Fold this protein.
Amino acid sequence: MWRPAVLIGRSLTDLFTAAVCTFFVAVTGLLVGWRPEANALSTIGGFAIFLLFSYAVSWGCACLGIVSKGPESAQGLGLVVLFPLAVVSNALVPTARMPEILRTIADWNPVSAVTAASRHLFANPNPSAAIHAWPMEHPVVASVLWSIGLLAVFVPLGTSLYRRRTTE
């Protein structure tokens, strides 16, 4: 069996799970009044940006899972990494009133870029569009670059770690 098949299968399963969750969040949003103001192609692009980033993050989580001693420690490590990324971003609150150091971190945070890109592609209000930081001025490009960068690091790393872990 091709060794990376296990990791690729797992990451595709994570992508499918993210797509199902996205579907339920979108339907719930539609039920409570959210409407993307963009055309269908741009709206699909907004979801695609999110799913690409989710796929890239799943490879990083796979690496954490491989190096951890068990499921509990893998979950704890993942929470330690992902929780600050979500909290110090524009996903939950606008960054304009954050203290300067937090605002700078949030404006360059990949989660902020993905959030701003999706809002932009949905043609929904995007408070980050007025921020003069490169990722907020070009959120779609920044999101794709973050995703490709994460994949470029974590796919080979995950494959190497998995190969080392399964040959011991």
